[in-house]
Amino acid sequence: MTLPGSPHIAYRGDELFIEDCRLSDLARRFGTPLYVYSRASMLAALAAYQRALVGRDHLVCYAMKANSSLAVIQTFAHAGCGFDIVSGGELERVLAAGVPASKIVFSGVGKTRAEMHRALDVGVLCFNVESEAELGVLSQVAAGSGNTARVSLRINPDVDPGTHPYISTGLKGNKFGIAHEQALACYLQAAALPGLEVIGIDCHIGSQITDTGPYLDALDRLLDLVESIEARGITVHHLDLGGGLGITYTDETPPSAEVLVRSLLERIDARGHGHRKIMFEPGRSLVGNAGVLVSEVLYVKPGEQKNFCIVDAAMNDLMRPAMYQAWMGIVACRLRDGPEAVYDVVGPICESGDWLGRDRTLAVQAGDFVAVLSAGAYSMTMASNYNTRGRAAELMVSGDQAWLIRDREQVSELFRGEHLLPASVL
Ligand code: LLP
Predict the structure, then answer these.
(1) Which domain, by its residues, includes 189?
(2) Would residue 350 show up in a list of annotated catalytic residues for this protein?
(3) Which of 282, 298, 318 is the last residue of a domain?
(4) Which of 187, 188, 300, 340 has the highest local Cβ count within 10 Å?
(5) Which of the listed residues 107, 168, 202, 281 should we mutate to test ligand 1's pocket, taking the one with most ligand atoms within 8 A of CB?
(6) Per-residue model confidence as pLDDT tens digits over 266-296
(7) Within a domain: residue 100?
């Protein structure tokens, strides 16, 4: 049986494997809930971008918000990748993984002065600036500390990416980026302010995009702007086309990274911009299909209207279904002959919104393991401690080897840093 997503996660006979590791063995050895990632799958996804960019000045900056575990960062860094960060926390994480600051771009609508100071001190490659106000503050912070901030302005091209409203970012009504119409004035301002050096232009129109059209529309708007900016004497060295490429969760058919990148490069060349450095900020498409969340079936609860399959992973481990009604595949780690039933797969959390999948046909019994597919992106990074549940452990698999890359969070860690009131106030 073939599964949507990565070829590195597949059945061999009745057993689900990730690379050469049997998932039910890993679940027994390391406990559940358990995130497991295929290193080969991550590297293959990165290589697809890099192949299409061979021969160009380029940098693929992995949007680490998708999965920021140190070993994931390290894996990409070793393969020549740069990184897109959105907080001071992500900056410290990526530095802790040994990434040079010259490969880091700093995005996000709400950078604080403290975050700017730290990023300038370590010397990040570029700040993607999202408003006129931020430009002013960055100039003050940089000039005040005798630094120069390299900047690229994030343009909101007002293009509909055709995705879930929560993950559309390039429309006029979104909080992101500088309106297309105001961009030229902002570039003139950036060029005039102290402590700033304009180096590029940037856009990111949304996530889980499954069509090349919106990218080409956004690119055209960006190139129009670059032409008018350069006509005013400001050089734009790089084009950062953001992330957003979708993956297959079920039956989506996004273009491959290679096809997407090649069609964008074709348009860039056709419009005479082929000499510019090209940057991308992919997140989901580098890691999404590389991971699974393995969980144990605790109880099977038949009902009049619904059957429930209650598992030990919950919305705190995997927010996407509850938050976006996202459909993620759920399969048994070991296929059994039957009987099959249609289940809502739910977690132990006290919320009706705590579900991982609805109306799923499965043959399962208590004690079996199930895997939620395509859980490499926006899964562990969005986990919380709701219901005082520790976060899952994570493994990285390569061939027949598995490494524990994050310990299971212990309950004692969950209230470390909390303080009881003194007895005198009770
Ligand atoms: N660059 C910027 C500035 C971004 O805001 C994002 C994602 C990316 C790059 C990477 O986008 P990607 O290639 O992963 O689509 N939690 C949601 C997705 C939120 C995306 C936020 N920004 C989900 O689970 O679907």
Answers:
(1) 107-282
(2) yes
(3) 282
(4) 187
(5) 281
(6) 999 999 999 999 999 999 999 999 999 999 9
(7) no
Q: With CA atoms as reference, report the closest residue to 281 among 137, 410, 107.
A: 107
Q: What CATH number is attached to the domain comprising 142? A: 3.20.20.10
- Mutation to probe ligand 1, out of 65, 81, 324 (largest number of atoms < 8 A from CB): 65
* b (16+ CB within 10 A) / e for 272-296: ebeebebbbbbbbbbbbbbbbbbbb
Are 111 and 237 members of one domain?
Answer: yes
Residues 128 and 220 in one domain: yes
Q: pLDDT tens digit string along 140-159? A: 999 999 999 999 999 998 88
Does the Cβ of 246 fall within 6 Å of ligand 1?
no
Do 259 and 316 fall into the same domain?
Answer: no
- Compute the distance from residue 22 Cα to the ligand 1 centre, in Å: 31
H or E element: which one contains 321? helix 320-324
- Burial level of 211, CB count in 10 A (0-12/13-18/19+)? middle
- Mean pLDDT split into 10-residue runs, the chain, 426 residues: 88 98 98 98 98 98 98 98 98 98 97 98 98 97 98 92 68 80 96 98 95 96 97 98 97 96 98 98 98 98 94 98 97 94 97 96 98 98 98 98 98 96 96
180: Cβ below 6 Å to ligand 1?
no
Residue with CA nearest ligand 1 atom 24:
378
